[in-house]
Every structure is written in structure tokens, then in C-alpha cells.
Write a structure and sequence with these properties.
The structure is a single chain. 35% of the residues lie in helices and 21% in strands. The chain is α/β, with parallel strands linked by helices and 287 residues long. The chain has one domain: Metallo-dependent phosphatases (Purple Acid Phosphatase, chain A, domain 2, 4-Layer Sandwich). The strands form two sheets. Strands 1-12-11-2-3-4 form a six-stranded mixed sheet. α9 links the parallel β7 and β8. α3 packs parallel to α4. The structure holds zinc ion (ZN). Zinc ion binds next to α5.
Length: 287
């Protein structure tokens, strides 16, 4: 299947999904085909807002440890954490986060959240994050799929000297993936929108015109999924065939969802499906 017919198929499927009853869409799995070729199947995990200190420091430490244990047992190729690693960014919380993260027996890729680098990131907050946690924007490839980890704080509250560089990198990275015909999964903290692409700016989305610019770039460059956290509410949207998914946290969920994470599977036909994996309350035990 060539690129334009694949694109048309994706748009048709997105329309079909949009017409489905919302009860079906609220389930665990969404299906959006990508390039139909011989993809090597694999799985990865999307964690959101480990946010040590939001649901109670000891609680969040315990649930993060349980998630690490459970993810190691599932043994996906890697895990991504969609930002807000900690509630209050300081030496202790970052050290505690890193100590638990070190328990992963597989690669763990982190995105920076507003609690990690500040609602308005500064040179100082970015420097601290980069020194302690690592890069705040980067890309990696897994079995032909490009994962682009971006720093949405630099879109939400632009910082002179940083946001321009980040934007140029984002465009260049998407263009490089497209040139290789590699489908892209974007991993970030802020979702682009929560209900509608043209909704007004609020605490849980990104401002215009940046939001539309990113949506257009994603559409143009073969982005198949856009994974975010921040909302503490499970949200599944689609935009031009792109799956936009906010997962459950391990700290505190505002929609009464259980603690847990999303397990994504990429199959031979390059279809991406995700399902919720709950942290069993029995595992958590009595308080
Ligand atoms: Zn957040």
C-alpha cells in the first residue's frame, strides 16, 4: 500500500471510529492502522504522572514500585513515562524517583512535566532536570517506529532561547522519520486538547496557534499516536487517524479510575492497540 492510499484508509477509519458509539470508544482498545507491511510485533508501556507526592508520598512510592515489578513481569520492549515524575521537584524527590526507576529491567524513557520543570520553565529549572534526570527532548527508534519525546512545557509557556531550538528539533525529527517512512509515536506530558481540537485554552491543553501547528505537523509526518499524561483522567481522542491517549496514573486519578498503566501492542500489520493494566489492590495491600 502506498503512502497516499494508506492515508486515505486512515482517514476513513478515523471517520468510522468517530461514528461508533462512544461506549465502544471508551473501552480499552483503539485501532488505527499504519503502514501495512511486515512490522516486527512488539509491546511497550505508557505510564503517566508517577508524580511522587501527589497521592501521598509513601503511596506513590509504593505504587510506582509495584508498577515497575508488574512491567518487568510483562517484559515489554520499553516503558515511557509521560511526565510529572514528581510532585515537588527537588533533590530528594528526583533521587527517590531515579532509585525506583533503576528497578526497571528494560529501558525507561521519561518526558518532562510541568511539575518537573515548572509551569513556566526557566534556564535554571531545565538545567536541573537535564543534570538529574536527563534530556528533556530526544527521539529513539524501536523496530522501525520512531518515538519522539518532546517537552510540552516549551510549547505551553515558551522560553526564549529554548523553545525555538525545541521547535526546530521537533520539525527536523519528524521530517527525518517521514523520509525513512517510519511511523511516529509522540510522547509528551500535555495533551494537545482534551475534547475538541479547537477548544479554548485551559490548564489541561496546549495554547493556539501552537496546538494546531503541532496537529498539522503530526498529520503531515505520519504520526500514528500521541501519548500524554497531565490530565489524571483517561482520555482517548482521534484526530485525522492519530490516536491521542492520556493514560491512568500511579499517583492520583481524578476520574476514579484504578491505578495502573497502558500496555501498547504493535502487531505485524503495524496496528497499534492499547489496554489498561491495573495495579491490583491486593498487591497494594492494606494502608
Ligand atoms: Zn502535569
Amino acid at each position: 500500500m502506498n503512502y497516499s492510499s494508506w492515508r486515505r484508509l486512515r482517514v476513513r477509519l478515523a471517520l468510522a471510529l468517530a461514528l461508533w458509539p462512544s461506549s465502544l470508544l471508551a473501552g480499552d482498545s483503539t485501532l488505527v492502522p499504519s503502514t501495512a507491511n511486515n512490522q516486527v510485533p512488539f509491546s511497550f508501556v505508557q505510564m503517566c504522572d508517577t508524580q511522587l507526592g501527589m497521592g501521598g508520598y509513601e503511596h506513590d512510592i509504593m505504587t510506582f514500585k509495584l508498577a515497575v515489578k508488574k512491567i518487568n513481569a510483562i517484559n515489554p520492549d520499553f516503558v515511557v513515562i509521560c511526565g510529572d515524575l514528581v510532585q515537588n521537584a527537588n533533590d530528594k524527590s528526583f533521587a527517590d524517583f531515579k532509585a525506583i526507576k533503576a528497578g526497571f529491567k528494560l529501558p525507561c524513557h521519561c518526558a518532562a512535566g510541568n511539575h518537573d520543570v515548572g509551569n513556566k520553565p526557566t534556564d535554571k529549572s531545565l538545567k536541573r532536570y537535564r543534570e538529574i534526570i536527563g534530556k528533556d527532548y530526544y527521539a529513539f527508534e524501536n523496530k522501525g517506529i520512531t518515538f519522539v519525546v518532546a517537552n510540552t512545557q516549551l510549547w505551553k509557556a515558551p522560553l526564549v532561547g529554548e523553545s525555538e531550538k525545541h521547535d526546530a528539533w521537533f520539525k527536523k525529527t519528524l521530517a527525518a522519520a517521514k523520509a525513512k517512512n517510519s511511523p511516529v509515536v509522540v510522547v509528551v506530558h500535555y495533551p494537545l486538547f482534551t475534547k475538541k481540537p479547537d477548544e479554548k485554552e485551559h490548564y489541561y491543553n496546549l495554547p493556539q496557534p501552537k496546538r494546531q501547528e503541532i496537529l498539522d505537523l503530526c498529520e503531515k509526518h505520519g504520526v500514528v499516536a500521541f501519548l500524554a499524561g497531565h490530565t489524571h483522567t483517561q482520555i482517548t481522542n482521534t484526530y485525522q487517524g492519530i490516536q491521542l491517549v492520556n493514560g491512568e496514573t500511579t499517583s492520583k486519578n481524578n476520574d476514579n479510575r484504578p491505578m495502573g498503566f497502558r500496555l501498547w501492542n504493535v502487531d505485524k500489520q503495524n496496528e497499534l492497540r492499547h489496554q489498561f493494566i491495573k495495579l491490583d489492590p491486593i498487591e497494594i495491600g492494606p494502608p
